[in-house]
Amino acid sequence: MAGSSFTELHQNVSADMSELTKDLERMVEYTEKMSLQLTWMAHDIVVMRTNPELVSSMQKLEDAYHRCKAAVCGAPKTDNSPVPPAGTHPD
After folding, report:
1. Residues 66 and 77 sit within 8 Å (Cβ to Cβ)
2. What secondary structure letter does DSSP report for 84?
3. Geometric angle at alpha carbon 34, from 29 and 40, rounded to 5°
4. Would you say the pTM of this structure is higher than 0.70?
5. pLDDT of 77 above 60
6. Contact status, residue 41 vs residue 34, Cβ threshold 8 Å
7. Residue 9 in domain
8. Band (48; pLDDT cuts 50, 70, 90)
9. Domain for residue 91, yes or no?
């Protein structure tokens, strides 16, 4: 009997350790992905601050996107269009 309970205890501990290892691996992977995203964000900020032409190019690209979206959706976008109600997103 003592051998049987020891075996069960050992199996339970092994299963728990396996589960904890999997959880730890998932957390490490998530942390690595977040670290990579933060690194790219920092890179983008540095690039934008050091290259002022990029900001104007991005603004032109965003304006072109909105014009194209308005053309595809059939709702013409004008410069004097009303401001959307608070809490809504124009896109």
Report:
1. yes
2. P
3. 130
4. no
5. no
6. no
7. yes
8. confident
9. no
